[in-house]
Write a structure and sequence with these properties.
Length: about 170
């Protein structure tokens, strides 16, 4: 191998290793919900409510921000003033998780299928159900109504926070 080829190989190796480091830096894994995990918006304990939960990993934050409902996650993420760099977004796969007490089954929110406008209720009232598989989302929409969408098809007007405990007159 010539000196010229050695330099090229070394440069390729350095660039490749740097790219791996960047991928790891920007791809945190989903973290489990515990009995004390609380919602970033309202302090509700996630484990006490039905429906899909979400977590957002922001650049510069050691821990994710949790949301007791996918509607909350979308309402924060889709805000025009939301300027923080998002490293990762996770939602629960409701094709596998128990609706009444979902645990685990975290999936990449950007790759998920969503059912908007169903009769399903989460902690904040009407919710946006999340699924890893199109078939699960389609079956859910047949049973509960609603429209199947991809992540980038969900709009701010679909993620309005006006239900659940916000409308509870007994509190």
């Amino acid at each position: 191998m010539t000196r010229r080829h050695s330099w090229r190989m070394a440069a390729i190796l350095v660039i490749g290793l740097a790219a791996c480091g960047e991928a790891e830096r920007y791809a945190p894994t989903a973290e489990a919900i515990t009995e004390s995990t609380s919602c970033a918006l309202d302090g509700m304990l996630l484990a006490h409510f039905p429906g899909p939960k979400a977590q957002v990993h922001f650049e510069g934050s050691e821990f994710p921000e949790y949301f007791c409902d996918t509607v909350e996650m979308f309402s924060v993420y889709l805000r025009p003033e939301q300027a923080r760099l998002v490293r990762a977004l996770y939602v629960q796969d409701m094709g596998k998780a128990d609706w009444d007490a979902p645990r685990g089954h975290w999936i990449d929110a950007r790759a998920a299928f969503y059912v908007v406008g169903s009769d399903a209720r989460g902690s904040m009232g009407p919710t946006i159900a999340s699924f890893a598989q199109l078939g699960d989302a389609t079956n859910f929409s047949r049973e509960h109504g609603g429209t199947v969408l991809r992540f980038d098809e969900v709009t701010p007007d679909m993620a309005v926070l006006d239900g659940g405990v916000l409308s509870d007159q007994k509190m």
